[in-house]
Amino acid sequence: MKNIYFKATIFSVLSAIALSSCVKSDDYDVPELQCNNRFDAANHKLSDLVSIAKAKPTSSDIIAEDYIVEAYVSSNDESGNIYKIMFLQDKAENPTQGIEIDINGANQYLDFPAGALVRINLKGLIVQVSNKNIKVGIYDPSYPVGRIEPTRLSNYMARVCDGQKPVKVDIVPLEFNSIADALKDDSHINQLIKIKNVQFQEGDLTKNFADDTGTGDRYIVDKAGGSLNLRFSNFATYAKTPISPKYSGSGDITLCLSRYTSTSNPATTSYTNQAYTRGIEDINFSNPRQATGIVGGTDLSYLGAFTEDFESYSVDNALFPKYFNYAYRGNRYWQIKTFSSNKYIQMSANAGTGVFQNLFMVPVDFTAANSLTFRVNVGFYNGDALKVYTTTDYVPGSDISTATLTDITSSFTIPKTPTSGYGTLASAGTYNIPAAVIGKGFIVFKYIGKGTDGTPADPVVTTTIQIDDIKVQ
């Protein structure tokens, strides 16, 4: 036993000395990490694909030589919302070209995360285009472009190395203040973008992000009336998440912009702009809902005394810098009209379809104001179509449903004739503003009408309303 103990002790001491010698020495080497590029340097730019893309590639369009481009991965399929496609762009910031690669498998983020710099060798692949949407894939006679099998993807695509590790950077989305700006000139297809001041359309607020049995189409809208279709897969981790209340407000959203063209007719000029979120964290709708359909209001002044006779505006004008013209329902606005050399504003649901709720909003300093008068006329009366309100808590540019409206219509006389033709502009009466109504606010002239929409059981109200000489004093 003593012998064994002695040998063990000697071994421990020698081991400690050896370990100590290694730690104190400055001669040891740290193994150098190696990351080697699979493909040679790029011999083409991503934008070069535009010139070789075809709507209906044939087998003769399969690229036969090494055709190498570099690009940054801008999409991420980790959440499951982006499925069997990958979006890439030529620059991490301020890109000028984007493409889509079709892959017959998911979880590509494990090998190609967002921000990864990759080289793509298109030898053996085809490049397809429909309405400026550039796609890369295999040749498949049954489709405009076929999907690459995941097991073969490494034959065509690989990460770019900086000598020690694969290159990965932050992708900076292009930012836009409206949907129209994002879609302008078709310049940003297959690129990562951020659109500010948008929200889900009202009809989608009661829905989940995706449908129960398939991809859901949900629409974002902006104040200018722009609309964009968002595609939400029922395989997404947030597919069953309700849009309301957490995402019912307004704000900004980051998207991979895409474009759909029917695969049965890839040469058609008809298409649908659509987009995908990479994850639910791309949606930042923390602000109150904003109004859509508002024009004007760029030069509001809250006054206690003024007269508006509309003579300074051109006929058919609907843009009033001093007032909000708000198409809350329907797509019509109060417009300037003229009769017998006199100008006024007019609204009607005649020959329209569906519901019309259209507000003409006049800013007022209620503390300084005492009364309101205006002249009114109707044409082709078939139902009451005008309401008048005051509000002191409306936030300019917001949805009118968030404001408190006080109905003062009963203070005025609104004609109910003629049922054919037009009457004559006449005083509607005087509303004395209560002393308790103070602060900055708005007088709201609200047109409420309904055109024909195939449901004759509902009353049709298409009465024309004309208003002139709004006077606050």
TrEMBL record:
The UniProt entry, under Pfam families, shows: DUF5689 (PF18942)
Signal peptide (UniProt feature, chain positions)? 1-18
Task: Kindly give the PROSITE patterns that the UniProt entry links to this protein.
Answer: PROKAR_LIPOPROTEIN
List UniProt keywords, sorted A-Z: Signal
In terms of InterPro entries, this protein maps to:
DUF5689 (IPR043744)
Domain named DUF5689 is located at 42-263
Protein name stated in the entry? DUF5689 domain-containing protein
Which source organism does the UniProt entry give? Epilithonimonas hungarica
